């Protein structure tokens, strides 16, 4: 099955995309073994990263708890003064995320997407030798440039999201004595956060597709991002739901540790290893899914373009 045959298939819905991705994994044991091998460096790094993430989440929770107990005459700065380790842990987490985590994840994304492309377009089982031959043609420069752009935009969004949360916390502190204003502020905050989350998931799907495009079509940077936005216009709902699935997947394994009090010394390493393994599994599945999603979005755009051209020709032929 080549690119043309893929374009002739019916449009895929949210569940259909997941089924296609699961079929790729189920029918290709060599790909599963290869994906585990390519994810091994990331898996070795993730337990340490997850421990720091859990520490940041714990200190964030303590910071918010202490801040909510303060009188409304005090500000956010007082919360930081009571928890001096929080800024240091946050800085360490950011450094690890921007450099080793980002690079290791990228090095696992490129071979996974490239191998999935070969399986999906050829429609047959592949051996490890076939995978190795395909990887020799894979380039790194384009996906790296696109990933840097994605990292920049996602960081800007998260900084803005954190600023909105802090702003609403300050507003709530100032209006604790007025029940009506507090409820209005809380409702407005909930609506704003929900709208921001939906927009983030939409952009996340677009960013993920841009990385796929960088590997598949050797288009990178701003061009890959604009092409991804163009392709995903008619399939934004599916992209949001797909992003939500993997967002919840990662969130569950990170937050459940806090709910289960796994920050204690005895359980932190065990749970970090389990959490890291499941995140790597979700990472493999995510890029298989978004490759299928990319082809479906591209097919919809090309079908619409063909329909418009046929309609114009029909109008031109009519007397």
Explain briefly what this protein structure is:
With 319 residues, this protein is mainly α. The chain has helices spanning 3-7, 14-26, 29-38, 40-69, 76-82, 85-122, 128-135, 141-174, 179-216, 222-231, 236-259, 265-317.
Question: How would you describe the overall organization of this protein?
Answer:
85% of the residues lie in helices and 0% in strands. The relative contact order is 0.13. With 319 residues, the protein is mainly alpha-helical. The protein contains twelve helices and no strands. The protein has helices spanning 3-7, 14-26, 29-38, 40-69, 76-82, 85-122, 128-135, 141-174, 179-216, 222-231, 236-259, 265-317.
Radius of gyration: 23 Å
* Strand count: 0
Mean pLDDT: 77
The amount of helix comes to over 70%
Q: Unreliable runs, pLDDT <50, ≥5 residues? A: 69-81
Structural class: mainly alpha
Fraction in beta strands? under 5%
Taking the sheet with the most strands, its summary is:
none
Question: Whole-Å distance between the termini?
Answer: 41 Å
Q: SSE order in H/E notation?
A: HHHHHHHHHHHH
How many H/I helical runs?
12
Large-scale geometry: globular
What labels describe this entry?
mainly alpha, 319 residues
Outline the fold blueprint:
Blueprint: H1 3-7, H2 14-26, H3 29-38, H4 40-69, H5 76-82, H6 85-122, H7 128-135, H8 141-174, H9 179-216, H10 222-231, H11 236-259, H12 265-317
Helix pairs in contact: 2-12, 3-6, 4-5, 4-6, 4-11, 4-12, 6-8, 6-12, 8-9, 9-10, 9-11, 9-12, 11-12
